[in-house]
Amino acid sequence: MSEEKKEETTATESKQAAAEPAAKKKKWPIVVGVIVAVIVVAGIGFWNWHEQPSFCNAFCHESMDSYVATWDQDANTTGTDKWGNEVSNTNAMLVVAHKQAGVNCLQCHVPTLSQQLSEVSETITGDYYVPLAEVGTEELMVNSGHEEGTGDQFCLKSGCHDMTRADLTQLTSDMPRNPHSWQHGEQECSDCHKSHRASVLICTECHSDAEAELPDGWVDAKTGDQLEKQAMSN
Question: Of the residues 64, 90, 148, 224, which has the fewest C-beta atoms closer than 10 A?
């Protein structure tokens, strides 16, 4: 091979050798970009799942199974409450009615960071009990980041029922016995309206004739108390 050809070959090889590191350097931003995109998409997918009821019992197992089961039931049919008792109409459970309106668990049950960490610890150690204690609207109000406020405000706030207690009282003023009047003092919405079991008409504690006014699927106060005591004793 002539000296001239040798020089040309050497020059070509030198250019190729110099081009390889440059090409590798150009691939790194693409690889990093793909990895970041995958992480972002996975993160979005995980967060969307985090908002769904199935997430609750996927990680918390037995303690949340019965609650998610109430969510999964169809509306306006015979169903089962979180304790396994029959509910003659699933619409009597707020979880079913809220699902029909497009409301998911975390829109009402806003978990604090400390609460989530405690739940993870309890799940790992098995230090929890079933059924879980019921949460009133006043506690839900605090969990959602409001240090002050009543249970009424949690349900009647903007984005939910968006009205005042006076508006609500007026809305049901044509009923034979207005359940939202203040004549017996302040009551929390959750005193009557139950999410994962049949709602309870507490008027029946004193007014026996109020049983005739029971909405479909609801139970009277005595039955509601018996169901709760029975569940707590098991």
Answer: 148
Which has the closest alpha carbon to 92: 192, 221, 228? Answer: 192
Distance CA 196, CA 83 (A): 9
Alpha carbon of 72 to those of 104, 169, 196, 217: distances in Å? 11, 32, 11, 17
Token pair for residue 4? Answer: 């001239």
Question: Exposure of 87 by Cβ count < 10 A (0-12 exposed, 13-18 middle, 19+ buried)?
Answer: buried
The two beta strands, 79-80 and 86-87, are: antiparallel
Distance CA(168)–CA(166), nearest Å, equals 5
